[in-house]
Structures are given as structure tokens and as C-alpha cells.
Design goal:
It is built from 14 helices and nine strands. The chain has 355 residues and is mainly alpha-helical. The strands form four sheets. A three-stranded antiparallel sheet has the order 6-5-9, with helices on one face. The longest helix is centred in the last third of the chain and has 23 residues.
């Protein structure tokens, strides 16, 4: 496996990127990050819906209104995080984290629950304020895992921010170590009633980009290994929230191993995305897509160059029958690689061609 030094050497060798490459990579990261970070938490927008919403401000097909607002707010939070990360002389503050949280949630809202026995209950989720009620999670093993109490949270968050600012100044940790330790400690505090995972993943990228490292995406299709790495580390660190909130680099070595591999994989993808060229090179949600049939790339390239192509024209370009082209179009649509606008019948590629 490549080392962090290996991928960073390859990454730095590509700098400075052309304006076009930088724009395309930034656009892909925007879609990938927002889609995956929210999808992990249950957002139902598809990858294609996310792209069209964030790039064009439109929704294709049916979509939950709350999920649309959540995705839009997520993108505002991402932009805010990027801007703040460039203020490198400004230390991290709790105020920024709370402001980021308020941006994601937008406003307070009430959650209604039906308890066993049919009893109705409700509680308020506060935007930009630390939790006022305990929170916990049921692990996949059926255990209840408690986070820091509301009473503990302000002091633990103060400790976390102070630790980060001191650790950054000390130079004793790499950006990868800083990001991994911060993420783990933050998650063990779980300072808000909702949105903690999304904030943790934004803060990871705040730390990375603050140190001129590429930003990364935790892919929702790999959610299981992400949560498993956190769980295995919890077993090592111990159940008490104060232990997790002050965990050392040695304590979180299992999560750090996972996080290091994640960083290497994501930067390797960025490098591939920028360097692999050709008519048959396609990308979707952080993966290189390979097609069994050579005609698939012909169809996609025709759509890319002439979005108003009819199905007959696509069949002619690929030199296949209408039945065969319809089958490929159905499969490409089911995979989420393409969509067709209802208004003007133009093809829109969600899958990305070689830059």
C-alpha cells in the first residue's frame, strides 16, 4: 500500500493545477462530499438529484423537502468551512463550530416520538447550541453507548478546542493525526442533539485544508467500515465519555489506521481523476467505472457532446439496434449514471468523463 508521503509527493507533483482541472475537481468534490456525508445520516436524495440541486438549483423527480433543504444547507456549510480554513492565523473556536452547526440545521425543530405503550413525546433540536438532553446510540451489537452528558459537554468542548490549537502550534502531530484525533474525540462528546457526524466530517476537512492537504470524502457505501473503526476504537478507549474526549494518539490507533488508509485512497482517486485520460475513462462517486461493452462509452460520449441526441441517433452512433441501446439506457439510468430532462428531453450525464 502507498504511504501518505507517496500520495502527497504524487499530489504535489501535479501542482499547480490548471484552472480547468481545479474547477472540475472542486465540482466533483462538492457533489461527492455533500451526497455522501448526508447519505450516511439517512438523506434520501440520489447522487444525481444532489448534483443537479447543487449545480443548477433544481430537483429532478420526487424528493423529500426536508432532505432538499438539508442538502442545500450542507453545501453552504462546506463553503463556510473552506473560507474559515484559509484564516490560518485565526485559532479554532467553539463559536465557529456552533455557527457551522446552525448553518447545517438552519433552525430549531421539534422531533415527535411514540414510546412503547403508545405514549407520545417530543423534544426540541437546537441549531447552533449544545445539547440539552442526553444522547446515545445503539450499536450493531445491541448495546447502548452513551456520549457526554449535557452538563459535561461545554467543558469537554473547551478542552477539545484548546487541545487542537495547542497541538497544531506544537507541530508534534501530522495533519492526518490532528484530523483523526479531533474526529474521534468530537464524536465521543457528541455535543449537539443532531448533525454531529456531518460536523465531524466537515471539521476533518477544515483541518486538512488548513494544512494544505487535499480534502477527503467518507463514502456512504463504506459506512460499515467507518463505523466499525470507531467501534473498535471505543472498545480500546473505554466507555466513559471523558476517556473518549481525551483519547491520545496511541489510544485511537485503530481509527488512525482506518483514517490513514481512507486519506490515501481518496487522494489516490483524485490523482487518477486528474491523470487518467481517454474516451473510455469514466468516474462516479469516487470510483473509476469500467464498462463491459465498448458501445457504452460511445453512447455516453455522444450524449456528452450532443445532449439532444435521440435514441435512434444514439443507436446509429454505437452501431447497435434500438433494442440494444434501450437496454443500455435502462441500465445506465438504473445505476444513476444518466438522466433525461423532462422539459427538453436533453440527456444529462451524472457520470463524469475524463478531464
Amino acid at each position: 500500500m502507498k504511504s501518505i508521503e507517496d500520495v502527497m509527493n504524487e499530489w504535489n507533483a501535479l501542482q499547480p493545477l490548471s484552472d480547468r482541472d481545479r474547477e472540475i475537481l472542486s465540482r466533483r468534490f462538492t457533489i461527492d462530499f455533500n451526497y455522501n456525508s448526508n447519505h450516511i445520516e439517512g438523506n434520501t436524495l440520489t447522487y444525481g438529484q444532489t448534483e443537479i440541486l447543487l449545480l443548477f438549483g433544481k430537483i429532478v423527480g420526487e424528493a423529500d423537502v426536508r432532505d432538499v433543504h438539508e442538502m442545500t444547507a450542507s453545501n453552504v456549510g462546506l463553503k463556510m468551512m473552506k473560507e474559515e480554513s484559509q484564516l490560518k492565523e485565526t485559532p479554532l473556536s467553539q463559536h465557529f463550530i456552533r455557527t457551522l452547526h446552525k448553518t447545517l440545521l438552519r433552525e430549531d425543530y421539534t422531533v415527535y416520538r411514540t414510546l412503547p405503550g403508545g405514549v407520545q413525546t417530543s423534544y426540541v433540536i437546537h441549531a447552533g447550541k449544545y445539547k440539552t438532553r442526553p444522547n446515545s446510540v445503539i450499536t450493531r451489537y445491541g448495546d447502548r453507548f452513551e456520549y457526554a452528558t449535557p452538563e459535561e459537554t461545554p467543558a469537554l468542548m473547551s478542552d477539545l478546542v484548546d487541545w487542537y490549537n495547542d497541538a497544531e502550534k506544537s507541530g508534534k502531530f501530522t495533519p492526518i493525526e490532528l484530523a483523526a484525533i479531533f474526529h474521534y474525540r468530537y464524536i465521543r462528546i457528541h455535543p449537539f442533539e443532531d448533525g454531529n457526524g456531518r460536523i465531524a466530517r466537515l471539521m476533518v476537512n477544515y483541518i486538512l485544508t488548513r494544512h494544505n492537504y487535499p480534502m477527503i470524502v467518507v463514502r456512504s457505501r463504506k459506512k460499515k467500515e467507518y463505523l466499525e473503526a470507531l467501534h473498535r476504537t471505543d472498545l480500546t478507549v473505554g466507555a466513559a465519555p471523558s476517556l473518549g474526549a481525551h483519547a491520545s494518539k496511541r489510544d485511537i490507533r485503530q481509527f488512525l489506521t482506518y483514517f490513514t488508509k481512507l486519506f490515501i485512497d481518496e487522494v489516490s482517486y483524485d490523482i487518477q481523476f486528474l491523470t487518467e485520460r481517454g474516451d473510455n475513462v469514466w468516474w462516479f462517486d469516487g470510483e473509476r467505472v469500467k464498462f463491459r461493452s465498448a458501445t457504452t462509452s460511445v453512447i455516453l460520449n455522444r450524449m456528452y457532446e450532443q445532449p439532444n441526441s435521440t435514441i435512434s441517433q444514439l443507436a446509429e452512433a454505437a452501431a447497435i439496434s434500438l433494442t440494444a441501446v434501450n437496454k443500455q439506457l435502462r441500465l445506465l439510468t438504473e445505476k444513476g449514471y444518466i438522466t433525461r430532462t423532462e422539459k427538453d428531453n436533453f440527456w444529462r450525464l451524472i457520470i463524469t468523463p475524463s478531464v
